[in-house]
Amino acid sequence: MSERKWKWPGEKLPEAWIPLKKYIPPRECWPDFIWDFDELPELKLIPYRFNLGEFAVDRNAKRFPDKTAILYEDEKITYGELEKLVNRVGNALLSLGVTLNDRVAICMPNQPTWIITALACWKIGAIVTPMNHLLKAPSIEYIANDAEVKVIVASCETIDEILKAKEKFETVKHIVVFGTERRGCLRYEDITKNESTHLEPAETTRFQICRILYTSGTTGIPKGAIRTADQILASSYCHGHKILGLTRDDVLGGHPYFSFAFGSVNFTYHPWLRGCAISIIREFSPEKQWELVEKHKITKLYVVPTALKLMLKVEEPEKKYDIRSLSLVQTAGDMLPAEIFREWRRRFPFCEIIDSLGSTELEYWLSTRVNWPENKIGSIGFPVPGMESMVIREDGTPCKIGEVGELVTRGIWGVLYWKKAEKQVESVINGWNRMGLYASIDEDGVFWLKGRTATLIKYSGYSIVGSEVAACLLGHPAVRDCGVVGSPDQLRGQIVKAYVILNKGYEPSEKLVEELRQYCKERLEFYKVPKAIEFVEELPRTVTGKVDIVALAEIERQKAQTKAEK
């Protein structure tokens, strides 16, 4: 590599990673992390000694202490106030024995406490491990033990499921709960109220691991995706600045959970590194989101396509609410139908719309741009600055224009799994990241997404592994075998549909459908519960006798198409 192209993080493993070496996959199975300083010369300015929490909090508090940082319902927190809150929490975590590189899990719905805790972790050199607040006890137990979490910070909404898993935690020393009390737990308010508002940042470097975000489990097992301080800063510049055009005057709003990549990037990276304010919505409804656009003067709005569809169903929101502050809406998390893109542009010409493709491991890597050409609507755009993508055949050679193949990418960030060397190998081909997506590229270099791996179901922005749902159903005594696929749905993208073969002694009925759904509700997150169940005598099989999910998904697609044509 030339001086203008740097193969991150250099020849040797960063000093900051040596204590964590056993958790990081061998170098030979990494993708190529390439920093192109010709394309992005600003990234060469990132210093070696660097503390992300200090950069995000202290820097902004010094520059504009009275500027609003967080808007939540009727609450307003300035950058000066945010610094004091972060320092109190940081000192409290230090008092609990949290030290450099310790993992701290945050499990709560979107709220200021989530943000404050994450920033505090970064400032003391701890690693944030987000947990989706909808997780059930088995998933909480798995992530806590896999990440070797030392402290879990919970809320009244999540503490009960966490306590169900408590006896199986292997490394958790403290459970801290915000907004309520539980025996055996520390109250967040109690441990922070008397702490100092002064906190010296930990001596960290640009290579400090700041976050381990777990996937939804596209192979049935959640995987922790590592992200470092300099990659987070680069993401904010390449996507937040170059694509979204964020400035300190922006107010960022929307519903994506902070524990998902969409919410993590847009609400826990970009605002603090660009000096923006954020508007937090606790529970999404289309009317509530429109209301907050007016109330908080939101300028950039982040929503999954399903939520955008629901917002468009609200009758004449431009007459009910003052939404003239809105300049851009970004969608991600699922494919944005071309008709929704066009409807938004037609109804709200003052507000641009872009669609981005990302993942837990890679965050954003492809995106449309503002003023996107009409004939390119429905595509997934160009690579994000700092990334490059291509479409390849099975033998690894590049596809021709218009030819469908596997979509791969590489650049500043990429797949780096915590403890999962075997999965790391599967996710990299010749230095390129592979995500199980299929696409084509046109004559203008624009990428068009064609399909996903058959077992991954995209429901309202959630990624659901069909095999996980099938494994749950197979635990019911009535179920002999089953296959779970995504069924096309106009509003939600896909719904979860299960094809079930019954054991002898059981007969198909609506009562049994509800019994199976209730069985799943008690064991899975709500969005994974099958919306439809069809009883069948047989299922398509592979040569090894396993259920052929690819064939089953195609059967369901054809059924849905036939139904739509009637």
Q: How do the strands and helices of this protein lay out in sequence?
A:
Elements: E1 5-7, E2 34-36, H1 52-63, E3 68-72, E4 75-78, H2 79-95, E5 103-107, H3 112-124, E6 127-130, H4 137-147, E7 149-155, H5 159-165, E8 174-178, E9 186-187, H6 188-192, E10 209-214, E11 224-228, H7 229-241, E12 251-254, H8 261-274, E13 277-280, H9 286-296, E14 300-303, H10 305-313, H11 317-320, E15 328-331, H12 338-347, E16 352-359, E17 363-367, E18 382-383, E19 387-392, E20 405-411, E21 417-418, H13 421-426, E22 428-429, E23 432-441, E24 447-452, E25 456-459, E26 462-465, H14 466-473, E27 479-489, E28 493-502, H15 510-521, E29 532-535, H16 549-565
Taking the alpha carbons of the first and last residues, their distance comes to 58 Å
CATH architecture of the largest domain: 3-Layer(aba) Sandwich
C-alpha Rg (nearest Å) = 23 Å
SS-based class: alpha/beta
Helix content: 25-40%
> What order do the strands of the largest sheet run in, or round the barrel if closed?
4-3-13-12-14-15-16-17-18
